[in-house]
Each structure stands twice: as C-alpha cells, then as structure tokens.
C-alpha cells in the first residue's frame, strides 16, 4: 500500500455515546436545571439548543455534544474527541444529583468509520486481539455485519461487543463499533437509585479508551497490509 493509501486508511469519523437505562423524566432536563446543578456553566447553557418533542423525548445540543432523554434512556453523545471526557463527566455529575433515579443498565459506545483506499473495503480482514480473547474474520465489502460479544475484561457480568460492517457514513469504508455494557438486574427488581450504575459506568470507563485503541490498532495494521 502506498503512503497516501496508508493516510487514507487512517482517516476516520469517530463518535462516543454514554447511555443509562432506567426511569427518567425528560422535561426536568433544561439549561437552567443543568446550571443550577453545576453540570453546565452559564456560557455552555446560553449556547444550548433544546428540542422538547413531547413529554417523552428531549434533545439538547450544547458545545458539540447532544443529550437525548426519553422515559427509559438518558444518553450523551459527541463526535468531537476533545469532548469525550466531558461526556462522561456530564453523566456522572447529573446522576450524582439525581441519586434516587432508578438505573439498571449502562453502556459506552465508540463508533469509527474508516475511509479506505479503493478496493480495500472488499478485502477480507482478519483481526486478532489476544489480550481480549477476540478473534474473528470479516469481509467488509459484504452486507452481513460481524458481531462478537465477550465477557468484559474489567467487570464481572459486563460485556464487550465489537461490530464490524460496511460503513454507511463513508463510501467504500469500514464501520467498527465497540460497545461496553453492564446490567444491574438487582437495581431493576428493587427500583433502587443509580449509585450502583454510576460505579459500573466508572469501571467500564476506566481503560475503555485503551481497549478501543488496541482493537482499532489491530484493524488498522491489517488494513495497511492489504
């Protein structure tokens, strides 16, 4: 592969979302509430755009981040890597205040879309990540997606899932989704607060970036060898 092709292989769109699953009341999450709870500063809140579609769904865009709140899901999203730590901080701060909110599952999803040189997307990629026990073969030129789910290396009972398929965002490219999930069935059964969920989220977050880098690094190296 030429140097320019290697540069193409390194080009990517990246995003991160952090989600909690439980019982939520979307209308309470407005700019004033976030400022009052010291989650957003006044400058962030003044630039926020809020769309309350009905009492069951709220969308808020603030500083290259998007918050989406429904009756059973709170999610924070950004496609700006400089905002990824802020996404985690917003979720932590919000539910440190709303400590009695029942939350029974948490997830972190990192999405990557690679722009590949012509023809490479039709090659068969073998990807091996021994430290995670992950091994699979995928043909990104086909429509079938490959999804592998493993026991999470950092938290008992949690899962790490890797999805690889053709990208719908980048023509001829490759999509890699890295999803880390933890469920807390005892919290759901007892309608407990969210302290356990936040602890689980922090466990997943610690080392999450490094795990993603190892998986993506293995895929990038395989791309370069095609």
Q: Helix and strand layout, with pairings?
A:
Blueprint: H1 3-10, E1 12-22, H2 31-36, H3 42-46, E2 49-54, E3 57-62, E4 65-70, E5 73-78, H4 84-97, E6 103-114, E7 125-129, E8 134-138, E9 146-151, E10 159-166, E11 174-183, H5 185-190, H6 195-205, H7 208-225
Antiparallel strand pairs: 1-5, 1-6, 2-3, 3-4, 4-5, 6-11, 7-8, 9-10, 10-11
Q: Determine the fraction of residues in helical runs and give it as a percent range.
A: 25-40%
Overall residue-averaged pLDDT value: 82
Beta-strand percentage range: 35-45%
Written as H for each helix and E for each strand, in order along the chain, the element string is HEHHEEEEHEEEEEEHHH
Uncertain runs: 1-10, 137-144
Total individual domains? 1
Shape: globular
Give a structural overview:
Residues 1-10 and 137-144 have low confidence and may be disordered. A nine-stranded antiparallel β-sheet has the order 2-3-4-5-1-6-11-10-9. It has a two-stranded antiparallel sheet with strand order 7-8. It has helices at residues 3-10, 31-36, 42-46, 84-97, 185-190, 195-205, 208-225, and strands at residues 12-22, 49-54, 57-62, 65-70, 73-78, 103-114, 125-129, 134-138, 146-151, 159-166, 174-183. It has one domain (3-24, 72-225). The longest helix has 18 residues, at 208-225. It is globular. With 226 residues, it is α+β, with helices and mostly antiparallel strands. It has seven helices and eleven strands.
């Amino acid at each position: 592969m030429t140097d320019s092709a290697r540069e193409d292989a390194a080009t990517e769109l990246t995003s991160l979302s952090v989600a909690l699953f439980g019982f939520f009341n979307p209308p309470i999450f407005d700019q004033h509430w976030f400022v009052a709870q010291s989650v957003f500063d006044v400058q962030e809140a003044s630039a926020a755009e809020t769309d309350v579609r009905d009492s069951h769904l709220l969308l808020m865009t603030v500083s290259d981040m998007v918050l989406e709140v429904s009756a059973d899901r709170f999610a924070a999203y950004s496609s700006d890597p400089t905002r990824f730590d802020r996404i985690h901080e917003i979720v932590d701060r919000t539910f440190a205040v709303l400590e009695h909110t029942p939350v029974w599952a948490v997830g972190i999803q990192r999405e990557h879309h690679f722009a590949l040189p012509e023809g490479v997307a039709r090659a068969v990629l073998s990807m091996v990540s021994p430290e995670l026990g992950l091994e699979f073969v995928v043909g990104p030129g086909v429509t079938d997606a490959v999804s592998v789910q493993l026991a999470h290396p950092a938290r008992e009972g949690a899962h790490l899932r890797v999805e690889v398929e053709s990208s719908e965002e980048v023509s001829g490219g490759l999509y890699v989704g890295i999803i880390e999930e933890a469920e807390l069935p005892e919290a759901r059964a007892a309608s407990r607060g969210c302290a356990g969920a936040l602890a689980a989220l922090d466990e997943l977050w610690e080392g999450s970036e490094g795990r993603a880098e190892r998986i993506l690094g293995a895929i990038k190296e395989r791309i370069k060898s095609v």
